[in-house]
Amino acid sequence: xxxxxxxxxxxxxxxxxxxxxxxxxxxxxxxxxxxxxxxxxxxxxxxxxxxxxxxxxxxxxxxxxxxxxxxxxxxxxxxxxxxxxxxxxxxxxxxxxxxxxxxxxxxxxxxxxxxxxxxxxxxxxxxxxxxxxxxxxxxxxxxxxxxxxxxxxxxxxxxxxxxxxxxxxxxxxxxxxxxxxxxxxxxxxxxxxxxxxxxxxxxxxxxxxxxxxxxxxxxxxxxxxxxxxxxxxxxxxxxxxxxxxxxxxxxxxxxxxx
Length: 258
What we know:
By secondary structure, the chain is mainly α. The protein is 75% helix and 0% strand. It has 11 helices and no strands.
């Protein structure tokens, strides 16, 4: 029987190498296809992370100023100015800003000076609403950073530094006074602050006073407190304090029937 002819050894090796290279190419292609979804997913996940990083970076700027006040590098008006700027530059919504400042007020590591500077900066910030400022003051009173009797003067600063128009300011004050969630002491402090604010006219103050009286319970002590506020006001256009007292008393009688 004739012997079977085999191809030369070198030719078989060559075909084997070609097959191995082809297999490697196929495996590489499969690996790339499998990796593609993961790569795309990774790219998609990078975008939120970038936004998160930017947001954290801006909040960290505020944190760095707080740290500088804590270690004594920033003091007094400069500290308040830097904090105010940091708050206004914070690329975040009201709740995020409010939380960042609240965290300082509740921090056991923050000094009293740092907390007081944070409150003052918040009152001067252009990008915080009156509602947010009022909430911060209520937090500060609860944790005994400031006293209740200091609230009105802080609110004067808050009102005068609101970036909105006078009409918008009046609407914000009225909304806070009429809100069921606003404590009575806060309503009284807000009313007093409105009477003392430099950016409201006498007419707008009397209008607010009428709304406040209607919103407040029938407590004679509150009427006396409001009268005391009016007594501290300067004269406007020849209208005396006595005129304001009479107007207040009349408003009270109309509102409460006494």
